[in-house]
Amino acid sequence: MRVRSLTRDRRPVTTTRGQREFCAAAADRIIELGAGGNAVQAAARSLKKEIEAGEAWTWRAPISAIAFATAAAAIGLLWVISGGLDGDVGAVVTAGVLSSAALVVVTLRHRTRRWQIEADRIAALVCRNGL
């Protein structure tokens, strides 16, 4: 069974979470058992490094994320200052909660794992899907 997808130029790539989990477990097991000789061990270590590198978080659209985060923080800050000058504790609390929630939404919407960005980028090049 072929677990990873293949591109048109026959390069194996991981494009789904299931593929990544299966490959990580297989690489760990091969390394743990010391099976297959030097070439197989080197391939397992290389696959493991590739999987670990893909788990790093990155920004999907950094410029728009910065723009939305800056806008949310600025609006929240202005709202807090306005509420503070008016002596309205409710407005200050509401502004703090809503601007923080907006920053969380921006972060969740724009941050993703590096492997997901790569999978989206090469999706049109995949000629055979894996697991």
Strand order of the largest sheet: 2-1-5
How helical, in percent, are the residues? Answer: 55-70%
Summarize model confidence as the mean pLDDT.
Answer: 92
Structural class of the helix and strand makeup?
A: mainly alpha
Report the major sheet: 3 strands, antiparallel
Calculate the terminal CA-CA distance, rounded to whole Å.
Answer: 8 Å
Radius of gyration: 23 Å
What does this protein structure show overall?
By secondary structure, the chain is mainly alpha-helical. β1 and β2 form a beta hairpin. The protein has five helices and five strands; from the N terminus they run ββααβααβαβ. The strands form two sheets. The chain has a three-stranded antiparallel sheet with strand order 2-1-5, with no helix packed on it. A two-stranded antiparallel sheet has the order 3-4. It has helices at 17-33, 37-54, 62-86, 89-110, 114-122, and strands at 5-7, 12-13, 57-59, 111-113, 126-128.
